[in-house]
């Protein structure tokens, strides 16, 4: 009858921020990797740069080649960009341009 109504000393012991394993929910850490979206970059050339630097800014991010690239420019609209494809790496990527860069690239393609 001595322990009735009394909590043991263990019930009042400080936890120091540590909780038992059962207090935490198990979190699933594994996930399924999704396919990577198309690579994207921003153009890094000035409008007064020579054509070679303009072409270099569209270079393949993998092999760094800038010749023989297939590219399709979407220069009209709100967000001008160039979709590029490297035939060697078979990789596609998109380069976004500022309006002045889009004009510069359009004038270069007109030659
Ligand atoms: Zn490449």
Name the strands of the widest sheet in spatial order: 1-4-3-2
Taking pLDDT < 50 over at least 5 consecutive residues as the criterion, the unreliable ranges are none
Mean pLDDT across all residues, rounded? 82
Head-to-tail CA distance between termini: 102 Å
Structure annotation, total helices = 2
Computed CA radius of gyration, to the nearest angstrom: 30 Å
Strand content: 15-25%
Set down the secondary structure blueprint.
Elements: E1 39-42, H1 51-56, E2 70-74, E3 81-86, E4 91-96, H2 99-109
Parallel strand pairs: 1-4
Antiparallel strand pairs: 2-3, 3-4
Report a brief summary of the structure:
The chain has 111 residues and is α+β, with helices and mostly antiparallel strands. It has two helices and four strands. It is elongated, with a radius of gyration of 30 Å.
Give a written overview of the molecule:
- This protein is an alpha+beta fold and 111 residues long.
- It has a domain of 73 residues.
- It contains two helices and four strands.
- It has a four-stranded mixed β-sheet with strand order 1-4-3-2, with no helix packed on it.
- A hairpin with a 4-residue loop joins strand 3 and strand 4.
- The N and C termini lie far apart (102 Å).
- Bound molecules: zinc ion (ZN).
- The site of zinc ion has 8 residues, from loops.
Could you list some keywords that capture this structure?
111 residues; alpha+beta; four-stranded mixed beta sheet; 2 helices; 4 strands; elongated; binds zinc ion
């Amino acid at each position: 009858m001595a322990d009735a109504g009394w909590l043991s000393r263990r019930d009042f012991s400080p936890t120091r921020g540590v909780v038992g394993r059962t207090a935490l929910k198990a979190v699933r850490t594994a996930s399924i990797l999704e396919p990577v979206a198309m690579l994207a970059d921003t153009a890094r050339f000035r409008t007064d740069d020579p054509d070679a630097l303009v072409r270099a800014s569209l270079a393949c991010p993998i092999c760094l080649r800038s010749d023989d690239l297939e590219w399709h420019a979407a220069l009209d609209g709100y967000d001008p960009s160039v979709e590029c494809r490297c035939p060697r790496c078979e990789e596609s990527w998109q380069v976004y341009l500022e309006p002045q860069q889009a004009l510069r690239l359009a004038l270069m393609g007109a030659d």
